[in-house]
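User: These chains co-purify. Model them together.
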Amino acid sequence: MSKLNSKTLRDSAVAYLFLLPGFILFALFIFGPLLYSLRISFFDWNVIRPERSVWIGWENYIRAFQNPILQRAILNTIAYTIITVAGQLLFGTLVAVLLNQGIHGRTFFRVAYYLPVITSWVIVSLLFEYMFSGQGGLINYLLKDVLHVTSQNIRWLADPILTFVPIDLLGIWKGVGWTAIIVLAGLQAIPDQLYEAAEVDGAGNTARFFKITLPLLRPTLVFLLVVLTIGGLNAYISNLLLTDGGNPLDQTHFILTYMYERTFTNLEFGYGAAISTMLTLFVFIYSTLQIKLLQKPAEV
Amino acid sequence: MGIKRQKLISNFLTYSLLIVGLVIVAVPFWYMVATSMKPQSYIFEMPPRLWPKQFTLQNYVDAITRDKFGLYFLNSVFVAVTSTLSTVLISAMMAYAFARLQFPGKNILYYVILLGMMIPPVTLLIPQFIIAKNLELVNKFSGLILVYITMNISQQTFLLRGFFESIPRELEEAALMDGAGRWTIFSRIILPLSKPGLAAVTIFTFLYCWDEFAWAQVMMTDTAKRTLPIAIALFQSQHLTRWGLVFAASIISFIPVLLVFIIFQKQFIKGISTTGIKG
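Assistant: Joint model of the two components:
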């Protein structure tokens, strides 16, 4: 008995030692900052001389709620999230279903579709900025001179609504490859016998897709919905580079680009912290849904 | 309509759609490559050509020789490699503790690790910056590296724990009987058996560190310490219309990622599809 105890004791000591470096970093750079952020969100924070910071209670939060630019940024972020999540799910599922047809060159297609995923946001954002240039861009050329949809060059990046065409398309274009691989894993987990049985019963392709594939894919799609939504709410770099900081007229911010600007350009650290605290809280509540999904990854 | 003919039509449709998708994915990439090889006077040509009328490598020469690009490349290599190796070691240790050892508070601590995956990194920017400032880490590579490690630990511990749990326990128990310590078992038995898992973790972390933008932008105000994403974004704002130059720089910075991806493609895709991790 005492031998067992000493073994457990030793195992515990080893475990804590193994966990120590990671948890020190965690405390220092994640949980410490979270609490700190909460604290400074109640201050008019002076980043150069913190001792001069003034406690102002809920003021930062109230200002955030009343700020029309932030309201617009929230709407922009929500619209972006809905559009890109829907687009990625739709096209990702389509690509996965196609790749699952026992085709030749599956590895090739999978790798090719994955290229946008591994390319950095900075590079693809600049690429889309170039393709969507108001003058002489590839997209304008296609629309005006090849397809004749428009008679004038469209100034995509100078309009508070049209700016989101390249931003949203980029979000979908970059994410389809990842979504497709997750869906493909889900598809491959569906037993062939089910399809064979359905074929014997005379079910067509469409019926098989809606009666077998979709229902069995549901857990995968729910998982994707959660992860992609969080990704959408966190969009940052594409907007920063394509709108050049909310242009025109501060109408095109996302929540995070606006928070960044207020904090690091205007040095309103308390205000920025209030905005990030609210977003963190929202994402946190939303992603507690995700925990269960994460704990059984094999079923994803 | 015969079954054979039906099969033929369905195959034709499948390939056609896949090729349309391929074009949508590939054309922007190709356009970037083509533009990087055009002389400046052709950058806003009408009609835009996917095959340059005149090829030049001048943009690549300019990109490499201008604005300390070589230095930024080395900075990126140093930061990404150091962060990645440290992340792999630290996460593997944590994953081993969670996979194999019994200790009080195990579930709660694991839950804390999972929480780390749910916090949006950009929302931590402000307080992380203030803390880094207090620790005098601003404008230091260690400031980038420590945060990159921290931001990757959760995901990689999660991934490796699953991997370690799939290794049969018998091997370890035999070594324990022989009196081997936990560290020996971890480093001599578990790690060598986990190469595919470690490869996946290495790639994910490397990609993250190589591409990270927001934290590097906040932290590195010293121009000599920039990493590539920052350098390329600034490149574009300094040379507004010199897209050939910007894309040449982008392509050079993309090559290491592409190589790593092609070499480890299998482990990579497997890592993603079995764990649902967003690479």
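Chain B has two domains: 3-56, 59-275.
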